[in-house]
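To assess whether ligand presence alters the predicted conformation, the chain was also submitted together with zinc ion. Input:
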Amino acid sequence: MSKRHLSQQQTQRIRQLQEKRISKASQAGPDDDAHLDPPGTGLVIARYGSRTEVEGLEGPHAGEVWRCHIRSNMEALVTGDRVIWQADTTSQAGVVTALLPRRSLLTRPDPYQRIKPVAANIDRILLVIAPLPTVSPWLIDRYIVACEHSDIPVLIVLNKSDLMQGPEADALRERLAEYHALGYPHIEVSALGDLSTLRPEISGRTVALVGQSGVGKSSLVNVLLPEAAQRVNIISDNSGLGQHTTTTSRLFHLPEGGMLIDSPGIREFGLWHLDEDSIRRGFTEMREFYGDCRFRNCQHQSEPGCALRAAAEAGKILPRRLESMHRLIAESKSQ
Ligand SMILES: Nc1nc2c(ncn2[C@@H]2O[C@H](COP(=O)(O)OP(=O)(O)OP(=O)(O)O)[C@@H](O)[C@H]2O)c(=O)[nH]1
Ligand SMILES: [Zn+2]
């Protein structure tokens, strides 16, 4: 046999092998992974640097949590993402191969003003407030603007209802009625008592709790999520990282249904930086007046012909919401 003939045979053999691999890969997913189980959908329940914890949503691994690698060409994953993944039963690690479309995305600017994704597919933000510590209306507005910016509906959860007595409680209820009229509903609960009004608001949804320190977020989580539900059984814990080593956000299943995405960072999300334009758009009841000011660049302060001030004087918008907007814009410029 000539050398040339041999090499032709080899070439043919190699091509056959390649074709076999390609057809196998198109059936079973990515190549060179003979021990990978077939692809299925999964839910990202936590992120640690380049590693991800994925819970299987179907097939033989449904309900199991696997540490996974992410294919290098993929965009950043965050808690709450739905993905396509495969379990590698040999190495006891999985691999994420695709990101499914997101319903919502919570983002925050990093110190260089680059937008960083934080959590995905949150359906509702629970803004926790309480009679104590007292909450200023402009702080509520700030959280609401952040919710509008993320395009995620907000439910105001007034915790510590057992402390709702006296004239201050009446004033707070009046405030909440104003928000109700603006399209921001609220419920009253007590983490020390009964959460029966809260549970149905979470059931069937993915929620995140936000609000200032001391209003009772941890207390609410501890009632909603008994200790057993806070533990995660990771199938493939070969990373040496342990289970609760990080401040990254984590997704929990509530025993009554529904999911909670929680992290110290997300709890403070109303304090993240927002630009002037997002703040204006976040006061949704004012949108219809913005185009009507005499001056295109009206700052809605003391300019003649300001449609917003006219609307406030006519009782069409709340003067204190307009003040709040000015305050948030001034603050965002000084940051
Ligand atoms: N009276 C009353 N006290 C409550 C209630 N819920 C929480 N508290 C108390 O409020 C205090 C603060 O509660 P936390 O759950 O730590 O508040 P948090 O919002 O998690 O605070 P940070 O961890 O600082 O963000 C604790 O002393 C709780 O016992 C409630 O419904 N009624
Ligand atoms: Zn104006």
